[in-house]
Structures are given as structure tokens and as C-alpha cells.
Amino acid sequence: MLNRRSFLKKSAVVTAGAMLLPAFLKAYQNDWKGKTEFKGRRLIILQLTGGNDGLNTLVPFEDDIYYQKRPRLAIPKQELIKLDELQGWNPAMQPLQALWEEGECLILNAVGYPDPDRSHFRSMDIWQTGSAANEFWSKGWLGRYLEQLPQPKPYTAIELDNQLSLALKGDKMAALAVNNPKQFKRQLNSPIIQALLEQQHAAEHEQLAYLYQTLGETESSANYLMEKAQLYTSSGDYPKTGFGKDLKQIAELISAGCETQVYYASLTGFDTHANQKNKQAQLLGQYAQAVAALRQELRKAGEWENSLIMTFSEFGRRLAENGSGGSDHGTANNLYLMGGGLKKAGIYNAPASLSQLDQGDLIYDIDFRRVYQAILSDWLQADAQAVLGRSLPKLDIF
Amino acid sequence: MKATEKIKHLHLRAGFGLRPEEWAKKRKEPLNQQIDALFKQTKAQPFRALDFPFPKDPKSLSKKKRRELRKKSRKLRNQVNNQWVERMIRPKKESPLLDKMALFWHGHFACEPKLHHHAEEYLAAIRQHALGNFKDLLLAVSKSTAMILYLNNQQNRKKKPNENFARELMELFTLGRGHYSEQDIKESARAFTGWHCDPLQAQFQFKERQHDAGSKTFMGQTGNFAGEDIINIILQQKRCAEFLAEKLYAFFVNERQPNKKHISALADTIYNSQYDLQTALRFLFSADWFYDPKHLGANIKSPVLLLVQLARILDLRAENELAWLQPQQALGQLLFKPPNVAGWPGGRSWIDHSLLLMRLNLAAAIFEKTNIVFRPKDDPKAAGRGKGFRKLAVRANLAPLNKLCSQEKDILAALSDYLLLQAPKLSAPNFQAYLSLAQTKEEKIKAGSLLLLSTPEFQIC
């Protein structure tokens, strides 16, 4: 209970037992307790931030040019996890070997877009909005997907972070950025915010009504997620890193029957201009271990068939290594789809040519927006054209 | 609209809100006197140049040394950002309208200067001409090193034109989509060939040898146009004045409900004054419709406005070099780092669930030194992921607020009158319960201002 002494010490934020206040009519709050469990399909996006070196993640070991252009960086053929007769995984991907062997992974080679931009931020915006390289959109592709849904809730899409990515932003509807439900809820604990939530607010002022509504939804969502988060505690073997915790959180929410359809998490640090080998191996190892643990838990919960994981990076890296044991910003890259309900598995198309390059960079074969289109229309059963604002040649993967 | 409401409205739109001592004085002054005051001291006072000269002949340096210089310079860019925010908070013999307009132009001519002296040069250009003539401003920005590099005019050569600058010049800076042809872009790109810069010295260079001096046909006119000629032809189009009027209206009047008649009147004023910005803004702030109650609180404060206004109310002082940068980053508007060439989309895009929470908790982070989230989003250089919770490195001084309230009986009402355009229901028992814990006058002022600065009502302008 707040008393005068603690008020003087800390008048804004109390950590436990927020002030007991009379309950007024809560104009904008929703009670989302006790909703039915979600059984539909879900999408998990994993973003490798910084530009993951695709050529050293999935190595074209039969191509001599790879070994010529990368005297220091190239991974010897015998160390690779061979996926087919041309390409093999970086050994750090070993935790995902079982997933690959059981036909739960589809790899697309040379995914990119025309007139590639080599700036991290710009290219990330292009990937996150689905715009062309010369278009500037302020809504993300998943934000626009949410706006298409009949009755989306703030937690229909969740990003495991404190700030929301452009991918999940819409005009009318935006996803929820939640680092973890407990921490999220704590931000609402101040007596002032509680007092604001308790007051019945007049809706005559358009912007104020919008802000109060957003606040009300935030609180309802925080309560909903807290409730779900307490239902199930994961025991999986996740790496003890931020990314590991994020995927663990995703597993817990899914296992608890949370209605969230889209999850978004990122792993950063892939901008390996120098001393790439160890750094990338460490990051890929972390990624692979976390995904393997997530898969195991979703299988246990019977949710793996309903789950699709897409992993991408804003660009790949140049073919030739640089002078510092690293690689510089490039263009086309591999993209990974994983899940228990894939129709097609394996490597979808031929690796990017290493002899035909555009200014030293790989030439894209599949426009990434075709992948979005396939996910939207054939996995999520949404109107892809309305979301993407264009119609592209169909990619037959689901 | 009440007289005091008009005053608050004017200073939130034309500046960054009033300090407590300014409010005490200005709330009683006639409005037209306050509008006049905005147009005094319109000359920009330059910033202290940062002491970091690049060598005249960088080629004599090793590649490694050059890389180090660039890295150091990128860091110094933060200080340019700091200097600017400090100036918004405590202007030096400058009208607050000057930096408000400079902020508008930064969003309009969105650009990311990479090195500190590029930022200095670009900022000097948008401040010097913020309240001058649009043509001078457009020329100065177009010739700045930051913009030449950002829009690839450095790669725009006679034999191999690069159209990026020409396209954005028309699409984003002057005319808007649909008011030029692809042919206009091609032809004008040729006119801008040869507009180069020396990145290390941050200096414009005209490279005669790269310039295509041949004949061009642009918007129906034919001649051996240079870049300046293209800009002149663009400014001849009434559409350019309309485009500016639309953007100024959204920024200063109402971002959600454009009024065609008023925008058209503003466009006429801009065009007839040959793009004199003071004439346009004076017209805007003097128009009756500017004070229509429906515009009161119709916009959402940009993060920079929110931060600077808070700093002015609470007399905030930065405790370290990153103090102003971190909240800009956390709230989604880091100066010199717009999301792209189209600038910050603004309006409701400033708000999502998490950002609103952060905004509402911002005053508490200052008053109570509670933690707030500051983790750069999508930072490709970030090694790993920390918790991302930090304390705001700023210090508040409540003396000016205490002074403002010293004679007041109803402190909360006085604070609300000063801080908000629209008051929440202060009589609500939950608010009263919270406030009743404060006993001394100073406690009441502290609790009351913290409460009001934490409301959704404080987010609108």
C-alpha cells in the first residue's frame, strides 16, 4: 500500500501492489480473459540484423570461385553439413540438422530485389515494408496484414522487443512490442497510469480518444499476456541470450494457447566486416540452438504443424572477402522457411551464380515479395494483393 | 477559443512551448504583440564550430588513419545534435520560430549527414534560411555536402547521369508526385551534373568537366540549363507553392484534416511573396482560422517537441553527451537520422502501444530517475542484446515552476492551465487520492506537475 513515506521516496512508480483505487467504468478496456485457445496457423519471423553472410551460412562447396574469392573465410568442404550435392551448412548450424533431415526446412536461394540498396537501414525498410527500392512506405507488410483482419487485437502480432519494427506498423492497427509480459505489465504499474486507466474518459476529442483507447488496449493486452505467460513454463534448452529468451517466450505463449498469430524476433550482430569467422559461427550457433529448442517445444505442444518460421536478413554479403577477415555489404541471400506443416522441403532453387555477378554481388533470382505473397495467400489465407499492393508471379511453395 | 488558449496554441505550434517565467508574463499580453515578437530576432546565431579539422591533403594519410578520422567525426556528429537541442531549449537571441522552422525543414529536406561537419553545414543552411526565402534555402540545402552525398549527386556525371537528386527534388522537396514527368527527371538530372562536393572539407564544388552543358527540355522550356535554372523553373510553378502550403498546414495547423480553402490562401501568399517564408508564416499565425478550436490539440507532439518542451518546463540540464540523444532514439525521432528521404511520417505514427507507455512514463523517468528503455532499434553494429534499460541523464530544476505557483491557491488548476490544452477530470477521486499524499506546497507542485506531464493530454499540441 502506498503511504506518505513511500510517496515521497517514489511518487510515480511502485513496483508491487499498486494503489487500490475505486473502480470506475473503464471506457476503453477489454476483458480478454478466458478466450478460446488459438488453433489456427501462425507465423514466426526471425530477423538476422546486420546482413548475414549467406555464402558462409550455406556454402556452395562445389564452386571453385567460392574458394578462390575467400581464401581466409572459406569453410573447407569436409567441415560442412552437406544438404545436397552442391551446398552445405556452416557447422554452427548443427542443432538444426535433425529438422533438415526430417523435411521441415525449405531453403530459397538468391532471394533479393531489383536495384538493391546496400545500406542496412534502407534495405531493412524495403524488406519490412515490401516496397520497391525507390518507394518509401511508412507501413509494414505485417502491419498491413493486420489491418486486413476482421477483428485484430493488439496482441494478434507481437514483437519480442521494446520497440516496434516498421514491419509490424500499420495506420489503424499496430502490433505490440513486448520485451516480456512481466516487464511490459510493470510499465503500467505507476499509480498515475493506473489513475488514468480508471478514469472514464470523454471521447469528444478525436486525438485524445485515440490515445486513451491505445492506453486501454495496452493494459488489456498486458493482462492477457500475463495471464497466458503464467500458464506454462518452458524447460527447453535455449541459449542464455536475449534471442534465446525471446524464442523461449514465444514457445511459452504458444504452448499456453495464446491467440497471437504473428511473432517477430531479431538477432543482431551480423555486420561482420572484420574477423567474421568466429563471430558468425557464434551467432549462427545461437540461432540454431534456439530454433531447435523452439521446435522441440512446439512439437510437444502439438503446435509445430501450425507454425511457420521465416528467417531473413536485410542483405547478404559480397562474394569476395575483404582485407580484414570479414565481408562487406552485398545483395541477394538465402531465406529459410521452417515448420512442421511444410508442403515442400529441401532446397528450392539453384544457388546464385558466382561467375555472373553485378558489381561483385550476387544477382537475385527470387523477389522476396513473392515469398511474402506465398505466405500471405497460401499459408495465412489472406488477400496478398491487398496487403502487398501488387501481384507478383506465384511462388509455388505451400 | 479563450485568449490564453490561443497563446498556448500559438507557442506550441510556432515554438516549443513557454517556460514557466515566459508563461507568467505572456499569458496577459495581447496576441498580436506575441505574433510580432515571433518575427523579431530571425537571424540565426551560428553554433560554435567543433574543433576537428580534416587535413587539407587527406591522400597523404594512410587508409587506416582516414578510417579513424571518419569514425571520430561520426561520433562528433552527436555533439552537433546536442548543440541543436540545447539551442531549441535555450535560444540565444533567436525567435523560437527559427528552430521550429529548422526542425520542419529537417523533416522536409530529410537527410542523414554522415560526418560531423556535414551535419554542421547542413544545419547551418536550414537554420540560416529557416525564415528567409525558400529559393535560397533550396539552393543551400541542394549544394550542401550532406545532401549531395545522400542523394548521390556525387555520382551524377555527364556520361552517366544519376537521377536520384532530380527525382527527390521534385517529388519530396518542391512539387509532389504526379506533377512532373519521367522526362522532366531525366532532363533535369543532366542539369545537375557537375554539382559535387569535397566530403572531407564539406565544400560544394562545381565540376565543369562533369557537367552536361547541352540543351535540355524541362517542363516545356528549352535551353542549356544549369541546376539553378531548373530550380527557377520549378519555383515558377504555382504547384510548388501549393505543395509547401500543404506541408506547412499539416505541420502548423492540422495534420489530419486539410482545409482546401485555407491551404489555397496560404499557397497564394507564398507564391505572391515570391517564396518569402516570413510573409507566409505571418499570414498563417494571424489568420482567424489558425485559432479555430478544432485545431486545438489536433496534432500529436513529435518526440523532439515533447522532449524540448519538457526540458523548457522543468529547466532540464543534460548530465552527459548522450542525454538528449537517448530519448530521441527511444521515442523514434533521432535528429540527423530520419528513416529515409521522405522524412518522419509523423502524426499517429509517433504512437504505438509501447511508445505511448514510454511517453507517459517519461516525466517519471525525469522526476524519479526510474529506468526507461533505450536500445537502438535494428542496430547492425550492436554486439548483443542488453536489457536496454537506462536512466535518463538529465537533471530537473523545479524552481521556476515553484515560482509560477507561489501565489496560487489552487495549484493543480494553475499547473493545468499552464501545461495542458485540455485538462483531464482533475476532480476524479483517483487523481485526488494520488494528490492528497502531497502535503507541503512544493510536494503539491511536484506531484501535480508530474501527474499532468504524464497524461495523454500532454501528448497533443
> What's the main sheet of chain A like?
9 strands, mixed
Helix coverage percent of chain A: 25-40%
Q: What structural category do the secondary elements of chain B indicate? A: mainly alpha
Estimate the strand proportion of chain B: 5-15%
Main β sheet profile of chain B:
2 strands, antiparallel
Physical arrangement of strands within the biggest beta sheet of chain B = 1-2
Oligomer: heterodimer
Low-confidence stretches of chain B: 383-387
CA radius of gyration of chain B: 24 Å
Average pLDDT confidence of chain A is 90
Shape of chain B: globular
- Portion of residues in beta strands of chain A equals 5-15%
Tell me how many strands of chain A there are: 12
Briefly summarize what is shown.
The complex is a heterodimer of chains A (398) and B (461). Chain A is of the alpha/beta class.
Notes on the structure:
- The complex is a heterodimer of chains A (398) and B (461).
- Chain A is of the alpha/beta class.
- Chain A has helices at residues 4-9, 64-69, 97-101, 120-129, 141-148, 181-186, 191-198, 206-229, 242-255, 276-300, 368-379, 384-388, and strands at residues 42-49, 58-60, 81-82, 87-89, 105-112, 157-159, 176-177, 262-268, 307-313, 333-339, 346-347, 366-367.
- In chain A, the strands form two sheets. In chain A, strands 1, 5, 6, 7, 8, 9, 10, 11 and 12 form a nine-stranded mixed β-sheet that branches.
- Chain B is 51% helix and 5% strand.
- Chain B has helices at residues 3-14, 20-26, 31-38, 63-89, 96-108, 116-128, 134-142, 145-150, 164-174, 182-191, 227-236, 238-252, 260-272, 277-286, 303-313, 325-331, 353-367, 399-405, 411-419, 429-435, 441-453; strands at residues 195-198, 203-206, 216-218, 221-223, 317-318, 371-373, 389-391, 394-395.
- In chain B, the strands form four sheets. In chain B, strands 1-2 form a two-stranded antiparallel sheet. A two-stranded antiparallel ribbon of chain B has the order 3-4. A two-stranded antiparallel sheet of chain B has the order 5-8.
- In chain B, helix 4 (63-89) packs across helix 15, helix 9 crosses helix 10 (182-191) and helix 10 packs across helix 11 (227-236).
- The two termini of chain B are 15 Å apart.
- In chain B, 50% of the residues are buried.
- At the A-B interface, helix 1, helix 4, strand 7, helix 7 and helix 8 of A face helix 17, helix 20 and helix 21 of B.
